[in-house]
C-alpha cells in the first residue's frame, strides 16, 4: 500500500467534507458530525467513508493497537503468534525477555480473565467491528445498495471486515462450535454497547450475510493494492466461516468458494523458490491479501518481524526464540523444500557465532528481512505482512472435499500442493478416509506454520493440542482437546465489570 493513513478518523472526515461540500459545513456547523450528516456527505464524496476504511486497514498493523504497552500488541499478526503458540506448533525455546511465556505458552491467560491478553484480543477485534459499523451506517446500512460504484465497494469492504473480526472473535472466545450457545455480544451498529451475549447461530448468520453481500458489492471492484479486500478475499473468509461449522452437508459450499478463489483470484501457488524467499514481499504472486509495510507506518521492534525474525532488530535475534516444534519438524521429509525454511546455512553472514547455531529451527528462510543482516535494521521497511494466500485455499479445498466424500478431488488438491514441495507426491493417491484427513491436517500445519492458521484448523478438525516437541520451555507432553478451556480466551475482566448484561455462566 502506498500509504496507510494514520490521521484520526475525525480529521479524515473533516478534511474529506471540507474538500467537496463547503456549504454543507456552513449549514451544519458542528465540531462533531452525526451518522446522518456523514451519510449525506458520503453520497456525493466517497472519500468520506474511504477514510474510515483506510483507517481500519492501518489499525490492523498499528503498534499497541489494543491500547497496551505490551510488545505482543501490534495488530492482527500479533494474534497469529498467540494462536500458533497456543497450538504448540510454534515453540518458545528461549525466553530472555518474557513475552508470551506465562500468559500464552503456559496457558495462564486462557484460564484467568484478569490477564491482559484476553482484553487485547477482545478490544482489537471489537474496534474493527465498531469502525466497520460506522462505515456501514454511513453507507445506509448493510442492506443498502449505494448508487455510486465507489460507495458499493466501500460498503463491501466494511461488511467483509466486520465478518472477518467476528470470525476471529468466535475462534478465540468460544470453546467449540455450538449454534445454540451464547458466545459474544452482537454489535450491529456504531452506538451499540452493553449488550448480552448472542447465540453463536446469530453471529454466524450475520457473518454469512455480510460476506455474501460483500461479494456482490465487490463484483466490479478492482483494488489498487493487496491491502484491500476484494471479492476473492471475501470468498476466502466465507469459506473459512462455513468450514468452521463442521457441517458435512455444507462442505461442498467450501469447495465451490475455494475453487472460485483459486480459479479467479489471480494468485498462484508459491513455487519452491518462493517458499524460501517469498514471505516478506506483498508482491509475491501467491499472496491473496497482505500489507505493504513501509517507512510511513513507523513499524519497528513491536511487530511480527520484531518477534519472529532473526534478521530484523528483534527478540528472535536477541533472546526470545520462536521455533518450529521439533516433533513437527521431524515429520517434514528430508526432500521437502519446507524443511529448509528452518535451517541456518548457506549465507556468508550465517556463521557459528550466531545464536542461531545454538538455538536452531527458527524460520530463517521463511520469515526474514530480505537484507538478511543478523539483528538488522530497527525500522521495518522491506518486510510485509501476509494475511491470506493461495496455498491455504488449496488446503482448505482438499479438507472440504475429503469431508464431503470427494476423495479423488481431495487427493488432487493435496497433490497439487505437494508436487511443489517434495520430489514424489504420488503417495497421496493411496490415502483415503481418516488417513487422508490426517495428511491434509499435517500438511496444513507444515505449510502454514507461523501464519496463524493452525489454530483454526485444529478447532475445525477437532484435534487435540499435543505439545510433542522437546524444545518447549514448559508443559512438554501436554495433551488437551480442542474445546478445553485452556485453548480459548476468557471474556476480559473489564468487559464483565462494565457490561451488566453479560453473563459468563451461560
TrEMBL record:
Location of the RagB/SusD domain: 346-503
Keyword Membrane: yes
PROSITE patterns: PROKAR_LIPOPROTEIN
Domain SusD-like N-terminal: 89-239
KW Transcription (keyword) present: no
Principal location listed in the UniProt entry: membrane
Family, as annotated: Belongs to the SusD family.
Protein's name according to its UniProt entry: Membrane protein
Lineage: Bacteria, Pseudomonadati, Bacteroidota, Flavobacteriia, Flavobacteriales
Amino acid at each position: 500500500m502506498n500509504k496507510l493513513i494514520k490521521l484520526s478518523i475525525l480529521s479524515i472526515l473533516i478534511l474529506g467534507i471540507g474538500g467537496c461540500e463547503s456549504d454543507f459545513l456552513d449549514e451544519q456547523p458542528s465540531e462533531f458530525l452525526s451518522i446522518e450528516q456523514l451519510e449525506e456527505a458520503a453520497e456525493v464524496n466517497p472519500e468520506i467513508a474511504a477514510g474510515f476504511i483506510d483507517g481500519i486497514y492501518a489499525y490492523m498493523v498499528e503498534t499497541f493497537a489494543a491500547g497496551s504497552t505490551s510488545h505482543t500488541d501490534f495488530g492482527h499478526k500479533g494474534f497469529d503468534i498467540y494462536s500458533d503458540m497456543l497450538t504448540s506448533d510454534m515453540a518458545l525455546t528461549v525466553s530472555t525477555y518474557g513475552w508470551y511465556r506465562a500468559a500464552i505458552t503456559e496457558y495462564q491467560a486462557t484460564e484467568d480473565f484478569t490477564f491482559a491478553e484476553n482484553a487485547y484480543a477482545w478490544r482489537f477485534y471489537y474496534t474493527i467491528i465498531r469502525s466497520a459499523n460506522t462505515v456501514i451506517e454511513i453507507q445506509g446500512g448493510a442492506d443498502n445498495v449505494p448508487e455510486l460504484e465507489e460507495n458499493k465497494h466501500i460498503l463491501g469492504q466494511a461488511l467483509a471486515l466486520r465478518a472477518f473480526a467476528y470470525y476471529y472473535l468466535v475462534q478465540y472466545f468460544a470453546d467449540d462450535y455450538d449454534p445454540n450457545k451464547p458466545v459474544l455480544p452482537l454489535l450491529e451498529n456504531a452506538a451499540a454497547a452493553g449488550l448480552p451475549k448472542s447465540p453463536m447461530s446469530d453471529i454466524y448468520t450475520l457473518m454469512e450475510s455480510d460476506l455474501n453481500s460483500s461479494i456482490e458489492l465487490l463484483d466490479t471492484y478492482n483494488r489498487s493494492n493487496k491491502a484491500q479486500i476484494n471479492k476473492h478475499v471475501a470468498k476466502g473468509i466465507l469459506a473459512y466461516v462455513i468450514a468452521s461449522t463442521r457441517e458435512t452437508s455444507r462442505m461442498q459450499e467450501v469447495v465451490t468458494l475455494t475453487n472460485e478463489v483459486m480459479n479467479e483470484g489471480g494468485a498462484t501457488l508459491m513455487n519452491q523458490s518462493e517458499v524460501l524467499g517469498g514471505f516478506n514481499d506483498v508482491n509475491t504472486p501467491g499472496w491473496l491479501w497482505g500489507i505493504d509495510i513501509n517507512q510511513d507506518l513507523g513499524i519497528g521492534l513491536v511487530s511480527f518481524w520484531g518477534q519472529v525474525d532473526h534478521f530484523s532488530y528483534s527478540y528472535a535475534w536477541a533472546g526470545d526464540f520462536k521455533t518450529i516444534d521439533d516433533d513437527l519438524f521431524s515429520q517434514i521429509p528430508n526432500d521437502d523444500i519446507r524443511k529448509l525454511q528452518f535451517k541456518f546455512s548457506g549465507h556468508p553472514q550465517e556463521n557459528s557465532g550466531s545464536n542461531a547455531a545454538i538455538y536452531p529451527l527458527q524460520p530463517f528462510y521463511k520469515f526474514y528481512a530480505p537484507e538478511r543482516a543478523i539483528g538488522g535494521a530497527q525500522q521495518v521497511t522491506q518486510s510485509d505482512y501476509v494475511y491470506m494466500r493461495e496455498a491455504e485455499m488449496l488446503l482448505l479445498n482438499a479438507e472440504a472435499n475429503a469431508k464431503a466424500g470427494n476423495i479423488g478431488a481431495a487427493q488432487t488438491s493435496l497433490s497439487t500442493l505437494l508436487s511443489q514441495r517434495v520430489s514424489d507426491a504420488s503417495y497421496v493417491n493411496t490415502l483415503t478416509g481418516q488417513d487422508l484427513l490426517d495428511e491434509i491436517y499435517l500438511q496444513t500445519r507444515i505449510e502454514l506454520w507461523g501464519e496463524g492458521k493452525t489454530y483454526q484448523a485444529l478447532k475445525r478438525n477437532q484435534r487435540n493440542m499435543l505439545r510433542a516437541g522437546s524444545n518447549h520451555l514448559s508443559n512438554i507432553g501436554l495433551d488437551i482437546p480442542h474445546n478445553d478451556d485452556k485453548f480459548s480466551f476468557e471474556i476480559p475482566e473489564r468487559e464483565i465489570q462494565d457490561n451488566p448484561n453479560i453473563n459468563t455462566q451461560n
